[in-house]
Amino acid sequence: MKLAEALAERAEAVRRVEQLRSRVVSSARYQEGETPAEDAGLLLAEAGEVLGALETLMARINRTNSAVDMGADGTLTDALARRDVLRLRHSVVTAAADAAAGTAERGYGRQLRSELMMLSALPVAELRGQADALAREIREIDVRIQRTNWEVDLRD
Q1: What is the phi/psi pair of residue 69, to 5°?
Q2: What is the pTM for the complete model shown?
Q3: pLDDT by residue (tens digit) across 68-84?
Q4: Within the chain, where are the H helices?
Q5: DSSP string covering 24-67, please?
Q6: Sign of CA dihedral 88, 90, 93, 96
Q7: From the first residue on, what is the mean pLDDT of each consecutive set of 10 residues in the chain (156 residues)?
Q8: Where does residue 78 rank: exposed (0-12), middle (13-18), buried (19+ CB within 10 A)?
Q9: To the nearest 10°, the Cα dihedral for 145, 148, 154, 156?
């Protein structure tokens, strides 16, 4: 099985657990004289089975990620960490540019000459350029990660 297939299987297992959790919660109590829509005990047991398989799958994915060498990007785990930090950095830089530009505020301009004018404390154009460069870097590393996911076999 390729790593990408395992990642898709993991996502499906997480969705399944969430569905089962929701069904357990809605069936855990019922009114006297009524019958519950579903057997909460059976649903809980099924959730336990899915969670056990998910744990095994996640351990295999983690072992694979830490063992796969991506050259200049380091291991796949290193590349994932880099991508996550790039996304956070992009979010911070974009938020700073938006705040400095006043795009989050309504009516940030002044209407009367006697009103105080709001000034930018940060270079908006420079921040937008940094955000664009970060977005490009995120796309590039994401492509390399996705390629690796489809080329690498899942480890035991």
Answers
A1: -90, 125
A2: 0.82
A3: 999 999 999 999 999 99
A4: 3-27, 40-67, 76-101, 124-151
A5: HHHHS---TTS--SS-HHHHHHHHHHHHHHHHHHHHHHHHHHHH
A6: negative
A7: 98 98 95 92 98 98 98 97 98 96 66 75 96 98 98 96
A8: middle
A9: -80
